[in-house]
């Protein structure tokens, strides 16, 4: 053995000596090769020219580290992995259905409905009843629905706090499980950590089946830190749905509340779209195929509705295109309530064009955001819209997490998606688009109540802002692709 070691030592010593002498050249060749390979991959797979330029510059200016970062954060593996897990069956289910030719209020809305139908490959369903609910009322309604469940409860959410809001819902889920109801809970891998100990411990102790989306305790096995499942939806007995922007957190039920939010109770065939979305995410996460056949009534109301499932996979860019099309369909008024408004140049230009067409644009954002950097970037974007004539309002605390978008008193969009790069390009989101005048009237009445308590931000207010604040906001807005 000693002789073998001696014989091997000489070649190894020569190799190390060679590397010591020529390592700069070797490192240069390897670095250039990696940079060329990444550049070619970026050129073929990045549709956003800004992202392509940023990644290309990074891999050339920061050798090795830039390539490693691109491998971890820049390559989209989600679509490929989802297809491996589901065999394409879920994709086919999500594309099922034919677009209905139901007459809508205006020709522009008819075009919008046709466009979103082609984007989502889902039908615009009639016969729905959609009830808007503030967060405390929605949490109570969800607990009651779980207690009334007889067959199944499917719940997906980003944050499920182990707190005064989460524990009553967790206990209701446990009671349903003990009754023999099929209970499935899907939490985001990062969102589940917002409260410690996480609610998963409580649920699992009581036998509830709970999974975490894109989660691993080992950091090197979790290369998807920036791809989060932000959807919030619940389906009971494959017939009753809840969706919107509400997490399950104690801030909604505190006295006084520290967060405001909006959710919706959905009844009718549109619940099938919530069901399909959950079934796809559940199959992706744990390979279990669920019964995704809608089992509810087909005619319960006047709302025509459709789910808009979006994410950095096969559904990439559908949300941005839907929003842009809705802005283009507006003839009189656009109303937007969002906690995070950093829309990117394309949507910003679409809103500016709407204003120039004579459309009234009303935007309501929180006066004090829970994400300071986002607030600064948002103020920079809003400054240009205020200059064009948009009506900007800042809502006083508590922090308003509501996500609501209406057009012309006919069309409503609500759901989990924000107006920022994370929601538009990185997160998995679920929104519901609705065509119904009474529902739009309810949504606008809710917005009116919020506006009555908000502070207007006119162009003069932005111009009066200190110079250093403008610089700070502009620098924050430069991070728009990452916010």
TrEMBL record:
Pfam families: PLDc_2, PLDc_N. One of its GO terms (molecular function) is cardiolipin synthase activity. InterPro entries: CLS_N, PLD-like_dom, PLipase_D/transphosphatidylase. The chain crosses the membrane at residues 20-40, 52-73. Keywords: Cell membrane, Membrane, Transmembrane, Transmembrane helix. GO terms for cellular component: plasma membrane. One of its GO terms (biological process) is cardiolipin biosynthetic process. Residues 225-252, 396-423 form the PLD phosphodiesterase domain. It comes from the Bacteria. The keyword Transmembrane applies. It is found in: Cell membrane. Its main location: membrane. It is a multi-pass membrane protein. This is Phospholipase D-like domain-containing protein. It comes from Alloalcanivorax marinus. The lineage of its organism: Bacteria, Pseudomonadati, Pseudomonadota, Gammaproteobacteria, Oceanospirillales.
